[in-house]
Automatic annotation (TrEMBL):
One of its GO terms (biological process) is rRNA base methylation. NCBIfam families: rRNA_mod_RlmN. It comes from Vulcanibacillus modesticaldus. Specifically methylates position 2 of adenine 2503 in 23S rRNA and position 2 of adenine 37 in tRNAs. It is found in: Cytoplasm. Coiled coil: none annotated. It holds the Pfam family Radical_SAM. The keyword Nucleotide-binding does not apply. This is Probable dual-specificity RNA methyltransferase RlmN.
């Protein structure tokens, strides 16, 4: 019998499983405490559970611990992991250190099928979706690293490899698990989720009325340019995407973050800034300008610092709230997909 990943279950799932197996449902809180507060690594360590229950758990579940294939530490304290899953696939996770705490960037898929031309995650397409437990394990492994420093994960960004809304159900379950106050207790306002714009899922996500930060990977101010660099735009136009964003804002009363990667002589000119301001002027939002990361397999170049600030000032003149993302981990290939792509290339060479 194939055992389930012990991190795949919400506390409600545990209550259901316990009831089905003739055990009291209050044990669900105890199991969550062992997994996410005490962070044990074997069922035998759950000493306040009966031996009979531990045997039942052992027969049905296993700890699917991630194995570190590679680990790079940046001069700014950023740590990038390349983890191996049970089936041999590799995924990336990044710990980023800020003045306000530590954030962990998690992947939701092995690879990505969105095909964005500036991103290393899409190289080779998508191999499979991750389960909720495999996404949870990335946060847990990061927390165990921080435990050694008597520190904690204070926020999570779902912005690693993969499109979260292409793996919607598992991503939602993941958020429920890490948000649960009986476990890791990471507040919804400390969780950010980025999508390239799968419009129906934005509507569905809005209806949850969560306090999670929604980030839209925009990267272009018109359909012609966006369709060239982001194939998803051929299915869901900017008009449809903006309508979904307005629905999200009106339904949740939260602003949307628009991520905009600046690529030299592609989408970073003054005319693009003016166009962007017109596109989003009636949406409660924040724009996060991102100097594009160099990816050897891509041919984009970085926008000059002068033009980055010029682009920002144009948006500000239109009363758009805008910041420039602080760069982290540039010396360790911390951008999405870079380490995994390098690993795959090395394996192929072997």
């Amino acid at each position: 019998m194939n055992k389930r990943n012990i991190y795949d279950l919400t506390i409600e799932d545990w209550s259901t499983w316990l009831k089905e197996n003739g055990e009291p449902t209050y044990r669900a809180k105890q199991i969550f405490d062992w997994l996410y507060v005490k962070r044990i690594s074997s069922i035998d360590e759950m000493t306040n559970l009966s031996k009979e229950l531990r045997n039942k758990l052992d027969q049905s579940f296993e700890f699917q611990v991630l194995r570190i294939i590679d680990q790079h530490i940046s001069s700014d304290g950023t740590i990038k992991f390349l983890f191996q899953l049970l089936d041999g696939h590799a995924i990336e996770t990044v710990i980023m250190r800020h003045g306000y705490g530590n954030s962990v960037c998690v992947s939701t898929q092995v690879g990505c099928r969105m095909g964005c031309t500036f991103c290393a995650s899409t190289i080779g397409g998508v191999a499979r979706n991750l389960t909720a437990g495999e996404i949870v394990a990335q946060v847990l492994e990061s927390q165990k690293i921080l435990d050694k420093e008597n520190d904690r994960v204070s926020s999570v960004v779902v912005m690693g490899s993969g499109e979260p809304f292409d793996n919607y159900d598992e991503t939602i379950k993941f958020i429920r698990i890490i948000n649960d106050e009986k476990g890791l207790n990471i507040g919804q306002r400390h969780i950010s989720l980025s999508t390239s714009g799968i419009v129906p899922k934005i509507f569905e996500f809005a209806d949850l009325k969560w306090q999670v930060v929604l980030a839209i990977s925009l990267h272009a101010p018109n359909d012609e340019l966006r369709s060239k660099i982001m194939p998803i735009n051929k299915k869901y136009s900017l008009s449809e995407l903006m309508d979904a964003c307005r629905y999200y804002v009106n339904t949740t009363n939260r602003r949307v973050t628009f991520e905009y990667s600046l690529m030299g002589n592609v989408n970073d000119q003054d005319v693009h800034a003016e166009e962007l301001a017109r596109l989003i002027k009636d949406i409660k939002c924040h724009v996060n300008l991102i100097p594009v990361n160099y990816v050897s397999e891509r041919d984009f170049v970085r926008t000059s610092k002068k033009q980055i600030y010029n682009f920002k000032s144009i948006l500000e003149r239109h009363n758009i709230n805008v910041t420039i993302r602080r760069e982290q981990g540039g010396d360790i290939e911390a951008a999405c997909g870079q380490l995994r792509a390098k690993h795959i290339n090395n394996e192929f060479k072997l």
